[in-house]
Amino acid sequence: MRPAHEALIVIDVQNDFCPGGALAVAGGDMIVPGINALMAEFGAVILTQDWHPANHASFAQNHPGAAPFSLTEMPYGPQVLWPTHCVIGSTGAAFHPALDTARADLVLRKGFRPAIDSYSAFFENDHRTPTGLHGYLQDRGIRQLVLSGLATDYCVAYSALDAARLGYAVEVRMDLCRAIDLEGSLATMRARMTDAGITLRD
Ligand code: VGL
Ligand code: ZN
């Protein structure tokens, strides 16, 4: 068992990010057994869930003429327009059925505000609006984080970068993550995480 100041954060292991899902990540389902096993080592386990209303601004279908995976400019900065995914209450938004969700202390939903996306588990994409996770972890005395889940180069990486910026010691279990890899995003985010002092465990 690891010390009480360490937590495992499992990012967005949901049907829509697994093969057959609306925004499928190659091999997304393959990480589930390893994550379930890793949960047993931790006294604190947090799951995040991407959770969007149907009119969400990150969906290409809500921007007439825009193609999925194209880039747009939002008031808070550049934003990839995604295929419609993880719609509130849908099967696609549910956790992968094999994920051991019973083990979670907290399920944190993010991306529920129509006008703003939230890749990170800590801040929405304006990098200012908090999700409340930092306060929760501070209240529990947690200072060290291990991250796993989907997708490496979006929600995992942005969560890891925010966590490092907030002063947590961060390790990303790259072997328990899978990437979307859009136009070199995996290499870009690997470099940004390394530069931020995050340990990448392959
Ligand atoms: C994610 C794109 C859009 C993720 C969520 O979980 O990495 N990526 N929404
Ligand atoms: Zn999303």
How are the SSEs placed, and which strands pair?
Elements: E1 6-11, H1 32-39, E2 45-50, E3 71-74, E4 77-80, E5 106-110, H2 133-139, E6 144-150, H3 152-165, E7 169-178, H4 185-195, E8 199-201
Parallel strand pairs: 1-2, 1-6, 2-5, 6-7, 7-8
Antiparallel strand pairs: 3-4
Helix pairs in contact: 3-4
GO biological process, one term: pyridine nucleotide biosynthetic process
Domain Isochorismatase-like: 7-190
Enzyme class: hydrolase
Structural description of this entry:
With 202 residues, the chain is an alpha/beta fold. The chain has a single domain (6-51, 87-200), classed as Rossmann fold (3-Layer(aba) Sandwich). 20% of the residues lie in helices and 22% in strands. Helix 1 links the parallel strand 1 (6-11) and strand 2. The longest helix is centred in the C-terminal third of the chain and has 14 residues, at 152-165. It starts with 5 loop residues before the first strand and ends with a strand. The site of zinc ion has 6 residues, from loops. Keywords: Hydrolase, Metal-binding, Pyridine nucleotide biosynthesis. Its EC number is 3.5.1.19. Pathway: Cofactor biosynthesis; nicotinate biosynthesis; nicotinate from nicotinamide: step 1/1. Belongs to the isochorismatase family.
Brief account:
This protein is α/β, with parallel strands linked by helices. Helices cover 20% and strands 22% of the residues.
Descriptive keywords:
Isochorismatase-like_sf; alpha/beta; EC 3.5.1.19; 202 residues; binds zinc ion; binds pyrazine-2-carboxylic acid; 8 strands; Rossmann fold; Nicotinamidase
